[in-house]
Write a structure and sequence with these properties.
Blueprint: H1 4-27, H2 34-41, H3 45-51, H4 55-76, H5 83-96, H6 98-102, H7 108-120, H8 122-147, H9 156-177, H10 183-195, H11 197-202
Helix pairs in contact: 1-2, 1-4, 1-7, 4-5, 4-7, 4-8, 5-9, 5-10, 7-8, 8-9, 9-10
């Protein structure tokens, strides 16, 4: 059972994260300082660093929350589902249940706006892509475990995850720069692009 001290610490972390995201999305990442984030919650800079190693960790924290949930969702998919189907259903279900993951901290609309901040800020995008590479390895091991394979002996789990991750990266890029920057927009693009993987990789593009 969570103690009163633990609940207080979680509330402080959530408040710092909410303040950081509000400032990043309204003023920009580079123009926001740690002191300003701490001041918005009426705590010291030292308190901020008890919860986050720096601005970059705070900026990526919401995405990290959803990524962790996604990896677990893949692990929990029905065992009869083929790997690509398990990945597809886990990510689509994740977009449908995003409110449950982030709204205890920030409104979903603010979470979506952080994606644009990440995409437009080189230091954050680099950190996001590095983390994505780590997640790919985690996912490959989850898929290998589901299929009863040795991930280091059989290349298929890593290949499947690489294809999936490539599609998701294209989806993110198109969504954050497109006209329909909404939750429905990312759901539609995710489904459309994942459904197009097989025709794109195996089909003859020159067919009428």
């Amino acid at each position: 059972m969570e103690t009163l001290r633990e609940r207080k610490k979680q509330r402080t972390r959530d408040a710092l994260l909410r303040a950081a995201v509000e400032l990043f999305t309204s003023r920009g990442y580079e123009r926001t300082t740690v002191d300003e984030i701490a001041a918005a919650v009426d705590v010291s800079q030292r308190t901020f660093f008890r919860y986050f190693t720096g601005k970059d960790e705070a900026a990526l924290a919401l995405v990290e929350m959803t990524v962790e949930r996604f990896v677990e969702a893949v692990r929990e998919r029905p065992p009869h589902e083929p790997p690509m189907e398990a990945l597809r259903q886990a990510v689509l279900d994740g977009w449908h249940s995003i409110n449950e993951v982030v709204e205890s901290v920030v409104p979903v609309e603010l979470y979506l706006r952080m994606y644009r901040v990440i995409e437009s800020t080189p230091v954050l995008l680099a950190a996001h892509l590095r983390r994505s590479a780590e997640v790919e390895e985690d996912l490959a091991r989850v898929i290998a475990e589901r299929e009863g394979l040795d991930v280091d002996a059989d290349p298929r789990p890593r290949l499947a995850v690489a294809v999936f991750s490539g599609v998701m990266r294209v989806t993110e890029r198109q969504w954050t720069t497109g006209a329909d920057f909404s939750l429905d927009g990312i759901r539609v693009l995710t489904s459309l692009y994942l459904d197009g993987v097989s025709p794109a990789l195996l089909g003859d593009w020159r067919e009428a």
